[in-house]
């Protein structure tokens, strides 16, 4: 296939966790896939590897959420709940437990990145982690000239049924 400048893609994405749109981001969403390998060595060839075997693969996504609402905090903090004041329903707070013993796999959901340049029903470039969760680490600052951002890191887990860690493209495609 010849090179084509139309294959050079730029732009931002919408972020969906489960069915929920996490809203605006600031600073760019990033995805990192790493692969751990083991180099096979034998005495007769010294330190020269004769093969290399994949031992595992991980996928993480860093999502800087610009909409720092209490609703978004509940979406990204395992076990968090919104408490509404019983006398004034406009008053709310988020209560976050320490989370000890929480299985992230049990609460994992689909994490999908959809390019804004594509129509809503065009999933041809979507990056999807079928089982992703965040442990709920937050880091944000109150600064004079910067937006307050929830920097959130998601980790993907292989699907126990078929081993899928992530995929790119249209989910409707069947082999």
Structure description:
- The structure is a single chain.
- By secondary structure, the protein is mainly beta.
- Helix content is 6%, strand content 37%.
- It has a domain of 121 residues.
- It starts with 12 loop residues before the first strand and ends in a 7-residue tail after the last strand.
Topology:
Elements: E1 13-17, E2 20-21, E3 30-40, E4 51-65, H1 70-76, E5 81-84, E6 92-95, H2 104-107, E7 109-115, E8 127-133, E9 150-156, E10 167-168
Antiparallel strand pairs: 1-2, 1-7, 3-4, 4-9, 5-6, 7-8, 8-9, 8-10
What descriptive keywords fit this protein?
two-stranded antiparallel sheet, mainly beta, 6% helix, 8-stranded antiparallel beta sheet, 2 helices, globular, 10 strands, 175 residues
Instruction: Identify the overall geometry.
Output: globular
What is the H/E order?
A: EEEEHEEHEEEE
* Class per helix and strand makeup: mainly beta
> For the residues shown, what is the average pLDDT?
92
Distance between the termini: 22 Å
- Provide the β-strand percentage band: 35-45%
Report Rg: 20 Å
Q: Strand count, sense and closure of the main sheet?
A: 8 strands, antiparallel
> Low-confidence parts lasting 5 or more residues at pLDDT below 50?
none
Number of strands: 10
Figure out the total of helices.
2
| Percent range of helical residues | under 10%
